[in-house]
Each structure stands twice: as C-alpha cells, then as structure tokens.
Design a protein that fits this description.
Length: 260
C-alpha cells in the first residue's frame, strides 16, 4: 500500500517537472513501436453529459473550461517490432479514429476510443485481441503534401456498414513550443489509453516526443463517424491541427488500478 502511494506521488512529480507537451514517463520495454505519419486532428466541443452517457463505469469525461472534446484523427500508421523494422504490408496502413479525453479509474488523463477504422483485417484482429479496441474494417485513402492533406474512409462491416468520413486539411506553419496554448496541450499531450478489459478497465502507456503542431483549416468534412458513435451532429467547424510525424512506443494493456 505504501509503495503504491509512493509510486503515485513520484509519477505526479514527474508529470509536473516534465511540463506540458512532454511525456511524463518512459516505455523501456514496449509491446510495439508505431510511427504516426501525416496525422491531423479535427476537434469539436461537446457538453460533458453528451459523452459521459457513452462511457463505461469507471471512465469520466475530462474537460477543459467545462467543455468536453471529441476528435476525428486520420493518419498513416506504421507498426514496428520494438526497436526493429516495420512489419511489411501488414504494418503500414491508414487509420481514422474517433476519440475523447477522459480520466480513468486511476485518476489519470488519457484517451477513450469510440471507433477506429483501418483496412488490414489481420492487424485489426491483433488490435482487438491485444488492446480490446473497437476497430472496424474500412476502405481508406490518404494523400499528403506540404500544402494539403486529404483523407477518406468507408466502413465495410457492421455496425453502421457504409458509414463514411472525409476531410481536406490545409496546414499552416508549425508552432513554436511556447506558442502552443493550454487547450492545444490538453487535446494533444495524452500519454495513456483506456479500454474494456475482463469486466473492468485496462490501460496502456504511450511514449513519444512532443507533437509539432500547425494550426490548419478543414474543408469538405464528413462527420458521419461521430454520429455513428452515438454523438450529436456537430454544428460548428472543427478546431483543426496538422501534425509532424512522431515515433511512439506502447506497453501492453493491463488492468487499471482504482484510486481510493
């Protein structure tokens, strides 16, 4: 018990020292490494109660100035053997996920995924098995240049077979670290995920360098993935960012301890 309390205090101290945008922990023995390439964030503000009703017991909506946020996140995923090569064909594919920001049973900040679209059936099976994440098979296309990024997705299986997403992103200049706002840190500096695990909640830690983010504009946005997740249709334009590529390391999913 005393060791657990001490570890919690040490972790809190590390997070405070690391500062916003910096990962507060290391992942020395990852289950896998991943590269996240050509990633963009499209964020919408929601009332917290609209999200809390979609979350399981033990997971609480995390808010910024009283608002909850939902993100549509398209990118190219490249899966690597830890400290090794990319898995050929199987490990390189587009992904689009719908996520929100939460606090887990351990009281820490993290991510909860409502859905994840990808075109590789074997990779989806592995993600469902290892991380218990709600991946769905989809036909996807992604094109990125310095001046424009386009993403499209079309789900090929139930539930909500045929649901689509689409966005065209025009990036601006990358921000200096000191120019990143507290809200932008809140939305992007997330170092763990939560997922269902054996009648409880599991968690996995993630380590990667701070994001390089550019404010961007979004055009021709299709939000059907949000409504398919049970969310109200967003009325406003999204808060949009385009990010530089990052290399990430992930632990395996383990049962999440509950704080007193």
């Amino acid at each position: 018990m005393l060791r657990a309390v001490a570890q919690t205090r040490v972790a809190a101290t590390v997070e405070a020292v690391a500062g916003p945008g910096a990962c507060p922990h290391a992942v020395p023995h990852p289950l896998m490494d991943q590269d996240w390439l050509g990633l963009s964030f499209l964020h919408w503000r929601y009332p917290p109660e609209a999200l809390q009703r979609l979350l399981p017991q033990g997971i609480r909506v995390d808010t910024f100035d009283g608002d909850a946020w939902v993100a549509l996140v398209p990118f190219l995923l490249r899966v690597r053997v830890p400290n090794g090569p990319t898995l050929p064909w199987l490990g390189v594919f587009p992904e689009t996920n719908v996520r929100t920001y939460v606090r887990g049973p351990d009281g820490k900040q993290g991510i909860w995924f409502f859905s994840l679209e990808a075109p590789r059936r074997l990779a989806i099976w592995a993600a469902r098995t290892w991380f218990h994440l709600p991946y769905r098979v989809a036909a996807m296309e992604m094109r990125c240049s310095d001046s424009e990024r386009t993403y499209t997705s079309w789900r090929l299986e139930s539930p909500h077979r045929g649901v689509s997403s689409r966005a065209r992103i025009i990036p601006g200049e990358y921000l200096a670290p000191e120019a990143v706002t507290p809200l932008e840190h809140f939305l992007t500096a997330r170092w763990r995920l939560y997922a269902p695990l054996r009648n409880g909640i599991g968690t996995a830690r993630v380590e990667h360098p701070p994001w390089r983010i550019a404010r961007a504009t979004a055009h021709d946005v299709d939000t059907h993935l949000l409504t398919a997740a049970g969310l109200p249709h967003p009325e406003a334009a999204p808060l949009t960012h385009a990010c530089g590529d990052v290399h990430a390391s992930l632990t395996r999913l383990t049962r999440c301890p509950r704080t007193a």
